[in-house]
Design a protein that fits this description.
Largest sheet: none
Radius of gyration: 18 Å
Oligomer: single chain
Number of helices: 5
Structural class: mainly alpha
């Protein structure tokens, strides 16, 4: 039985686990290079990475994967901030939440419509 051409066909689009792991590893290394850059420069870089990822993978029904990528990028940024100095003070999640209130990262969102997703 064929599907009705008037109805959109739902296709699961997921990042391959290995490809996502390679991408996160490369982004972690890039973030490591920016570790001692000013906070505004780090924020611009992380926001640009997230916007690009949402633009490419922002297909309908892919929100859980986008949200997972957002969480991983927040975790990478926090780990880089924790390694900035040798002082005993370490940034915790509460301090990081205060920082992200000042420098908010774009939240996960669907950027493509059903018509674009069918192509």
């Amino acid at each position: 039985m064929r599907a009705d051409p008037g109805w959109p066909v739902h296709r699961e689009v997921q990042d391959g686990r290995e490809r996502l792991t390679r991408k996160l590893t490369a982004l972690r290394q890039d973030a490591w290079r920016l570790m001692h850059a000013p906070m505004a420069a780090q924020h611009r870089w992380f926001a640009a990475v997230l916007r690009g990822h949402y633009g490419y993978y922002g297909r309908p029904h892919n929100y859980p994967a986008l949200n997972g990528f957002h969480r991983q990028m927040r975790r990478i940024w926090l780990r880089c901030l924790r390694r900035r100095s040798q002082k005993s003070w370490r940034m915790g999640w509460s301090e990081f939440e205060t920082l992200t209130a000042r420098f908010p990262l774009p939240t996960a969102r669907i950027t493509q419509t059903w018509a674009q997703a069918r192509i």
